[in-house]
Every structure is written in C-alpha cells, then in structure tokens.
Design brief:
Dehydroquinate synthase-like, alpha domain, binds nicotinamide-adenine-dinucleotide, 11% strand, six-stranded parallel beta sheet, two-stranded antiparallel sheet, Rossmann fold, alpha/beta, 8 strands
Length: 363
C-alpha cells in the first residue's frame, strides 16, 4: 500500500520572547472575560502582577508539585466552577499544564472517576491557554495529560485535553536551573526520537522530529552552560514545541514506557526518567533510517548520538546507573516497563528478558 496518513494540529501557537505580554489581547480576541490562572508556585508573584494588570484574571491557583497529583486538578476544577470561569490559563512546567488540561476537561464528577476511566472527559469545555516555563514536555500542543493518583502515574491521551492556545515565550524559561534545563531538554529529545522511531510515525511528524533533534544538538549544552542565553533558550523552546508536535500523533515508545516505573518507584523527574534509558534505546532501535538521520544531522551515526546523550546526562548531574536509585527490584522494573502500553509502539519488540538485559547493562 502507498503512503497514507492523517495529520491534524488544532492549537493556535504564539511564539516569541515576551509573547506573554500579548495575553490580554488574546483573551479579548477570543471574547474571554473570566480567566482562572494556574501557575507553578515560583511564578505566583509574576501571575499576581499579571492579575493586577488584566482584570479578566479572576482566580489564581498555584499548589502544583512535579509529577502532579490528581488532588491539584480537583482543587483547580472546583475553583473554575466557583469563579464561573470561561477559560483557564496555565503558566508553568508540564506539571502545571497537565493539571489545567485535566481540570478543564472534568465535568461534574470526582477526579478519581476520570482517572480510572469510570467517567468520560468532556470535549465541550472552556478553552485552555498554555504558556510553558520549561523547554521539554511539549504539553502545550498535545492531547496528553500525565497525572498521578497516589503512586500510580498515568498518561491519559484524550482529545478533550487539547489546549486552544499555546503562548510559547522563551523568556519564561530563563530561570530554569541547569539540572532541570538538562533533564527537560533530554525530554524534548526523547519526544523527537520516539516520534521519529514510533511504529506510527508519519511524514509531517518526522519533519518536526528532525528539526527538534537538530535544535537540541545545537543548543542544549549552550542553554545548560548559560541559562541567560536567550538565543539558546529560544531554540530549546522551539525544540520542545517541535518535539511535542513530533510525538503528538505517533505517540512515544519504549523509552517513555520505561520512564513510568522509574518515576513511580524511584522518584525520578520525568525528563531524567526518560534520559535514563534514552541512549540505550538509541542503540537498541538503531536501524538504517536512524543511522541516515544521524548522518544528515552531522553525526557519524547512532553510536555518536548515544554517546552524546550519555555525556549530557553526566554533565547535567543526572543519574545514569541503577545503583544510584537505591534498592532496585530489577524483575519488577523490567516487568512494568514491558507491560506499559507505549512499549508496543517501539520499532523493535522487547520482552521482559530483553529489558532485564538492558537494565543489567545499566546496573
Ligand atoms: P515540572 O513542571 O514538573 O517542573 C519541574 C521543576 O521545575 C519544578 O520544581 C518547577 O517548579 C520548576 N520550574 C518550572 N519552570 C521553571 C522556571 N522557568 N524557572 C525555575 N524553575 C522552574 O517539569 P516538566 O518537565 O516541565 O513537566 C514534567 C511533567 O510533565 C511530568 O509529570 C511529565 O510526566 C509530564 N509530561 C507531559 C507531557 C504531555 O504531553 N502532556 C509530555 C511529557 C511530560
């Protein structure tokens, strides 16, 4: 059969340094008058300021932690109802954006019912406007929300989570500390690579992946070295955006499947959990198509890409060995990784025994 695909990308994207300043105009253009804002705790003073300036902001919630808990989405949904909001603005990292997406898509039910799939999310809900303050998740352009309920962390993929607007203002990322710059940057790279090698990859997403990988190769280390380098930050925000578009339709694969038990059982932040096995997956998934991409991007091949990832992890102080994670239950780690639905998207079939071998090499 010849080439066939369906591509859709419904989010309106405003990109550029200082773009958050356009918020009032964007709200006016959409006729939105009652906006509940949700932000990362460190951004609260900035959002308080914005609230003084923009009367449409009628509520503010900022109790968000990394690997966000369902209770945050429930509290935000209650605030949205109480203030009779007509939109939600999320300013922060992926944890903040995902909380807003989940809260907006809840109808009248309890958050755990939605988390367990006992109630359907509503696609007819108030619009979500996103402004990422990290350059990693791409959540501003995906229909994904990753939430945790107790220790269970779940990726939920649903059309109801698609934001209406993404305001990508790289100046918001200038304050990201070096270690988070490295792990979020490697998350963006993981999205691009996994979108590229996913069994469901397709031509438009492939182009996004190419550009994202190129931008990470050229800018991640610069942004890590000097967080105030606006050009590198801008390029990393673009890489994260393209990375999001690269995986939004094809979905991620084996490396992300492994990241879930690594976050749930050993507490690794999402980007660090993806980075933990990303170089292993570059080696496991190496094929002529990936080799050709690496060479096109100026690398000698997949091995150089894997080595670069390994070197960035060390440079950024990210954990690279199982021995750094405390007492590890190797059998459970391999079992849970193999059982994760995203493992089915991996181009190379990997069963529990193959994953034990991969993890033993990372011992
Ligand atoms: P995060 O939102 O958890 O933030 C990480 C840390 O960085 C927090 O302590 C936060 O306060 C801090 N931070 C954020 N922006 C900052 C800034 N500008 N300056 C200083 N500190 C800042 O991290 P993240 O990597 O952006 O998001 C991770 C979450 O997103 C995970 O739950 C992950 O599973 C999820 N995720 C979602 C998608 C999606 O498509 N929805 C994709 C990938 C990951």
């Amino acid at each position: 059969m010849g080439l066939e695909f369906v591509y859709s990308q419904p989010v309106k994207i405003y990109f550029g340094a200082g773009k958050l300043k356009a918020l009032e105009l964007i709200l006016e253009e959409l006729g939105l008058r009652r906006c509940v804002a949700v932000c990362d705790p460190f951004l609260r003073p900035r959002l308080e300021e914005l609230r003084q300036r923009i009367p449409a902001i009628c509520g503010l919630y900022s109790d968000i932690q990394p690997n966000p808990q369902l209770s945050g989405a429930a509290a935000l949904a209650a605030l949205i109802r109480e203030r009779e909001a007509d939109c939600v603005l999320a300013v922060g990292g992926g944890s903040t954006l995902d909380t807003a997406k989940f809260a907006a898509a809840m109808g009248g039910g309890e958050a755990p019912e939605y988390f367990r799939g006992q109630r359907a999310f509503s696609t007819e809900h108030i619009p979500v406007l996103t402004a990422p303050s990290t350059a990693g998740t791409g959540s501003e352009v995906t229909q994904v929300s990753v939430m945790s309920y107790g220790r269970e962390k779940k990726t939920i993929n649903h059309p109801a989570f698609m934001p209406k607007i993404a305001i990508v203002d790289p100046t918001l990322t200038l304050s990201v500390p070096p270690k988070t710059t490295m792990n979020t940057g490697l998350d963006a790279l993981a999205h691009a690579l996994e979108g590229f090698w996913s069994k469901n990859h397709q031509p438009i997403s492939d182009q996004m992946a190419r550009q994202a990988i190129r931008l990470v190769l050229d800018n991640l280390e610069l942004a890590w070295q000097d967080g105030s380098n606006l050009e590198a930050r801008t390029n990393m925000s673009l890489a994260a955006l393209f990375g999001g578009l690269a995986f939004a339709l094809p979905k991620t694969a084996g490396c992300h499947a492994c990241s879930y038990p690594l976050s749930e059982d050993y507490g690794l932040p999402h980007g660090e959990a993806c980075a933990f096995t990303l170089d292993s997956f570059v080696r496991l998934n190496a094929d002529p198509r990936l080799e050709a991409l690496c060479r096109e991007l100026g690398l000698s091949g997949t091995e150089e890409l894997a080595r670069r990832i390994g070197a960035w992890k060390k440079l950024g102080g990210l954990r690279t060995r199982l021995s750094e994670l405390g007492e590890v239950d190797l059998g459970k780690l391999a079992r849970d990784s193999a059982a994760h639905p995203l493992m089915k998207n991996n181009p190379v079939a990997l069963d529990e025994a193959a994953l034990v071998r991969m993890y033993v090499a990372l011992a």
